Amino acid sequence: MLYDILVIGAGAAGMMAATKAARAGCSVAVLERNPFCGKKINITGKGRCNLTNTRTWDEFARHVHPSANFLRPAFYSFSNKDVVSFFEEAGLKTVVTQGGRIYPESMRAADVSRTLVKCMEEAWVEILCGREVISVCREGDIFRCNYIEDGGRRMDSGSIEALSVIVTTGGLSYPTTGSTGRGYDIAESFDLHLEPLFPSLTALMPWQYDTALSGIDLENVGLTLVVDRTPVQFETGDLSFTDNGIEGALGFRVSRRAVKAILAGQKVFLELDLKPALSTEQLKARIGREMAAMQIDPGRVGQLLMRQLLARLMPRALIVPFVAANPGLSVATLPAALKLWRFKIQSFTGYERAVVTAGGVSQKDVIAKTLCARNVPGLYFAGEVLDLDGDTGGYNLQIAFSTGSLAGESAAQRILKQRASSE
């Protein structure tokens, strides 16, 4: 059977693209490597799935890399408000949480996947799971997609033909969810350029990391990224120390630039400010008030009293590693130590746990208004396979939904125009 549109990859972008194309009146098939759709969606947001957020475009754009202008047409054609409406109309209620983040009311990521699958089924999309795409080629005006199918005891091969193809295969992050980078191979086979790939929204490992920090979560702290002695990014919010190093919202926000710098051979440091809301002078006054309340003589603060004082200034679990990082700590040096705790970063967690893959199909080779490859009519790209990624907080799923929607509708319009002109 010759389909109007073939979507390769049934993640967030792929399922949205298939739904939009089918609703427009096209015959659509989806090829998915995994035995079911939405495997990566099911683990996003710690299993809760941060669908999007309430930011206006101007606010949203500041969290998109490397260029938000490329995303603008897709965002305006299917905005964060449209995403909420889409899921609400499909029967999935949503809720706005702290910071304007939007989740399914059930707080279950699997409900998002099920809703997207339901939308595809209701639009009569042919869903073909367990098929791993090997190659895509074009024969005249028709695309042929070759795949292998795991039948359990043996591997079968097959092919599907379509008038248009939408590549939504994701990146390299979380390979256990089926991310193999196949979309990059497809792009290169059609002579599209790839921007360098690297993991983003990932943990950063300090040199001589104190494992006593692992498991400690900090709220409302400041974090400065320093590259070759130059501060290049400052963020405030929450941070987590884990077995993999520094992560959480703050760690993830600076990780993109940090990873690029490390790969470029530059020296990378993170400077942690435990009291970003206070100046050094204000912090000195605060420490003075705490000592007065404890009836401590500033000239007679030993190790035990120092730890009791620190318990009023930071989580108790942080005291031991903080003292270890500041030998000879005194009342006089305490304010500076609280305002600047420097970590030399030696490495980062790779694709195995990175949330997204930065880099990908070059924006220069794809038309932003349609997401069609400039020199390959009928070939579209959407989602993480593109050189387009966002910060943590619902940005990446919104990018997937927006680009998937635009690619699906653009591919459908192309087919329908061709059909109308031939009648």
Describe the structure.
- The protein has two domains: 2-199 and 352-422, FAD/NAD(P)-binding domain (3-Layer(bba) Sandwich), CATH 3.50.50.60; 206-348, no CATH class.
- Helix content is 33%, strand content 28%.
- The strands form five sheets. Strands 1, 2, 7, 8, 9, 10 and 19 form a seven-stranded mixed β-sheet that branches.
- The chain has 423 residues and is α+β, with helices and mostly antiparallel strands.
- It starts with a strand and ends with a helix.
Features:
single chain; 423 residues; alpha+beta; FAD/NAD(P)-binding domain; 6-stranded antiparallel beta sheet; 12 helices
Describe, in short, the structure shown:
With 423 residues, the protein is α+β, with helices and mostly antiparallel strands.
CATH superfamily of the largest domain: FAD/NAD(P)-binding domain
What value does the average pLDDT take?
95
Radius of gyration: 25 Å
Largest sheet: 7 strands, mixed
Task: Please state the second-level CATH architecture of the largest domain.
Answer: 3-Layer(bba) Sandwich
Sheet/helix structural class: alpha+beta
**Record field, number of beta strands:** 20
Tally of structural domains = 2
Strand content: 25-35%
Distance between the termini: 21 Å
- The first-level CATH class of the largest domain is given as Alpha Beta
Could you name the CATH topology of the largest domain?
FAD/NAD(P)-binding domain
Overall spatial form:
elongated
Q: Helical percent range?
A: 25-40%
Q: Number of helical segments?
A: 12
Query: What would you call the quaternary organization?
Result: single chain
Unreliable stretches (pLDDT < 50, length at least 5) are none
